[in-house]
């Protein structure tokens, strides 16, 4: 499994959601099923709205997992993915309980102190589980 921590230079939560949209679009264009794991329903709804207007020239097919779990880009909280070996974009502060069902995991880190601390803990946890997470500066 490939695990990457994409590190943003800002602390703005909207920048983090925009990065998630860009990465979801890229994953979908490369043929991967994408699951965006959100922190809570409010973040999920904000991300859903952002995906609708993210790029005027192209539509990113997405849906909430309860509405259609087989949409190319799915927004979820802790629900299991409908398909195996896809891309998990984790916006939650903890590791997904279903992490082993993905071939690729991206954690998006910004400079907000509580999130930085949680992501550092996730990085250590992935290593303890035998993975080799990488850091990517954005």
TrEMBL record:
It comes from the Bacteria. InterPro entries: DNA_pol3_chi, PolIII_chi_sf. Gene3D superfamilies: DNA polymerase III subunit chi. Transmembrane segments: none annotated. This is DNA polymerase III subunit chi. It comes from Metapseudomonas resinovorans.
């Amino acid at each position: 499994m490939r695990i990457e921590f994409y590190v943003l230079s800002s602390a703005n939560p909207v920048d983090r959601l925009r990065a998630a949209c860009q990465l979801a679009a890229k994953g979908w264009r490369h043929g991967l099923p994408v699951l965006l794991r959100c922190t809570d329903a409010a973040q999920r709804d904000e991300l859903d709205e952002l995906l609708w207007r993210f790029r005027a020239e192209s539509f990113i097919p997405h849906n909430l997992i309860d509405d259609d779990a087989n949409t190319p880009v799915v927004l979820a909280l802790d629900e299991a993915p409908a398909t195996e070996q896809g891309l998990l974009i984790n916006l939650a502060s903890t590791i997904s309980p279903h992490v082993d069902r993905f071939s690729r995991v991206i954690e998006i880190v910004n400079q907000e102190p509580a999130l930085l601390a949680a992501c550092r803990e996730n990085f250590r946890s992935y290593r303890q589980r035998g993975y080799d997470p990488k850091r990517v500066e954005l």
